[in-house]
Amino acid sequence: MALQTQIAAMKHSKQGTERATADSGRRAHTKERPHSLETRTEQVLTGESIGVGVAIGPAFVVREDPAPDLRERLSSLDRDEEEGRFRDAVIRSISQLGKLQARLALLPEDSQFEIGSLLDVYRRMLGPSRLQRGVIRRIAEGLSAEVAVFEETEALAQASHPPQGARAGSGEDAAAARRRADEFREIGRRLLRNLTRTPFLTLRGMPDGAILVTESLRPSDAALIDPSRVAAVVSEEGGATGHTAIMLRALGIPAVLAVAGALDAVAGGAQVVVDGDRGRIVVDPAHDTLVEARGAVATYAQDRQKLGRMRRLSSKLASGEKVLLQANLELPAELPLIAQSGAAGIGLLRTEFLFINSEELPDETTQFELYASLVEAMGADTTTIRVLDWGGEKPSEALERAGLSTLGETPNPALGLRGIRLLLKHPALLETQLAAILRASAVGPLQVLLPMVTVAEEITAARDIYERVARRLRRKGVALAETLPPFGAMIETPAAALTAGVLAHHADFLAIGTNDLTMYALAADRASADAASLYDARHPAVLRMIADVVNAALQHRTPVSLCGEIAGDPALAPLLVGLGLRSLSMTASAVPRVKQVIRSVRYEECVRLGRRVLAETDSRAIMKVLQEFGNAEVG
Ligand code: PEP
Ligand code: MG
């Protein structure tokens, strides 16, 4: 080997041992590359750009597990046992989907919606469906559960989208049919893995900060990726608008999908630059490429750091008024995000997660331990715990077993026994939760929040229970906060908004839930793709209701906050302040950007903006006013 080439190779090899920081949010990572005197020329591969910046790291190549052996067609078990195996696999699959559903809380709302509806499709397939009936019929014919599942899901997939394009149709129809076929195959794969106990995509042995290189990554696998461990993702399959891409973007993981030949081109441990913005990867990058990539990583990190610095800055308008910014929390796993975001407490703890993934109702001690740990973690900042808001639209094994779920029995779950209505119908559920919350009140400041209130009697009935539970605990000598924590009501229905004055009289505080308020005010389902264009919190009806609720609360000197998704939209923050709000609770990751905007605007400007917006009569005009305000701010 010529001297020049040897030097180049040694330099190249040294680069592999250098520290490469994937981005500011991730920890730095190192990867020893075996020293080699062999020269590697860099190789550039392109694919679909998913965004979220640039990452550098060692490749961790994961190949699909081989498909289960389906040669043994006939079952050696009796029919009931074989059917039992299938039913076990269904239960395991449903429980896994429930866990994925719970993780959706970490994503922005549009991604939650996309992935959530996909998970709903899977869950429906696993319910009493054609798929289930077909598998059981095949098992009755003597087939093993594995073969029955494979053949039934394949038959359904082919019926949806016949091979060779045997069915004519427009491009969109064909794409929808293909997606449907993929959904059947995906659920079939999940059932097969559970039947054969084959592990799902396993990242065991993957060094932190590695680049995951894989043939295909399903949304359900992507949802389980820990962004603090995986620097980037490269996959041979997938597309920029697929569910996997949405999930990766939401998790902040740089990725390039649809990279043909990635598995052949990338050896395990090879250094890879993933440029998620330009949709290209560079394997064994040359010196200049690496320098450029490091520059890009640094720039991205600086941008994030700027926002990170917001954490320490106070949340005040440029004119000095304080605006409380808190975080919504749907899973305890989000707790570190809250600390990083600089949120001043939890403005909304959705307690549904306690009921989603468990077969039994959580008892008082289980709930107490959880609430107490969150309250303790928040220190002097308040935690607002919302009691169970069960809508009947999500399956909960625990509630079903306890005979409390109305799932499937009501034609329109959003208008049925939701939230406080369900709790007052089954007061034991509310008593247990209130007892756990009251016990946690000895640990630190908290508040109790009631969901889906429509009449004042719901607040008074729940408060009676609250006070009775407190008296019982005190009689038993259980430590509670000296004065009972504030007892508040959510304003999520037009009925509540239009009678906010009455509710403000009965509640210690109000929290406006614009996600539901928008749905009920505009009669547009928040989870329906068909109604998505109608669902807009900037509709004058919604904004006027917000303004009225705030005024009613101020008149009664009742504190009021807003905790729907719009609280986390930086473009709306000045408007919400202008409508009179001083307390907003949002997804933790939104706090720094909202704070940045809050710090840049003056109170009088916000009030003027509020007045201008309330004078408009349609959403489009309101959007224009908001845009002009935003442009003026930037300019
Ligand atoms: C809301 O409806 O705005 C709200 C905060 O509650 P959830 O999104 O949990 O229904
Ligand atoms: Mg709600």
Automatic annotation (TrEMBL):
Cofactor requirements of the protein: Mg(2+)
Q: Where is the composition biased (Basic and acidic residues)?
A: 15-41
Pfam families, alphabetized: PEP-utilisers_N, PEP-utilizers, PEP-utilizers_C
Annotated function = General (non sugar-specific) component of the phosphoenolpyruvate-dependent sugar phosphotransferase system (sugar PTS). This major carbohydrate active-transport system catalyzes the phosphorylation of incoming sugar substrates concomitantly with their translocation across the cell membrane. Enzyme I transfers the phosphoryl group from phosphoenolpyruvate (PEP) to the phosphoryl carrier protein (HPr).
Residues binding Mg(2+), per UniProt: E492, D516
| Keyword Disulfide bond among UniProt keywords | no
Q: Which InterPro entries match?
A: PEP-util_enz_mobile_dom, PEP-utilizing_PTS_enzyme, PEP_util_C, Phosphohistidine_dom_sf, PTS_EI, PTS_EI-like, PTS_EIN, PtsI_HPr-bd_sf
Cite the NCBIfam families for this sequence.
PTS_I_fam (TIGR01417)
What positions constitute the catalytic site? H243, C563
Domain called PEP-utilising enzyme mobile: residue spans:
207-279
Q: Which UniProt keywords apply?
A: Cytoplasm, Kinase, Magnesium, Metal-binding, Phosphotransferase system, Pyruvate, Sugar transport, Transferase, Transport
Tell me what this protein is called: Phosphoenolpyruvate-protein phosphotransferase
Q: Which reaction does it catalyse?
A: L-histidyl-[protein] + phosphoenolpyruvate = N(pros)-phospho-L-histidyl-[protein] + pyruvate
Recorded GO cellular component terms are: cytoplasm
Question: Which EC numbers characterise this protein's activity in its record?
Answer: 2.7.3.9
Q: Which parts of the sequence bind phosphoenolpyruvate?
A: R350, R386, N515, D516, R526
PEP-utilising enzyme C-terminal domain boundaries: 306-601
Broadest EC class assigned to this enzyme? transferase
Q: Where in the cell is it found?
A: Cytoplasm
Q: Name one GO biological process term.
A: phosphoenolpyruvate-dependent sugar phosphotransferase system
Q: Which organism is it from?
A: Acetobacter nitrogenifigens DSM 23921 = NBRC 105050
Chief place of localization: cytoplasm
Q: Where is this region: Disordered?
A: 1-41
Quote the SUPFAM superfamilies the UniProt record gives: Enzyme I of the PEP:sugar phosphotransferase system HPr-binding (sub)domain, Phosphoenolpyruvate/pyruvate domain, Phosphohistidine domain
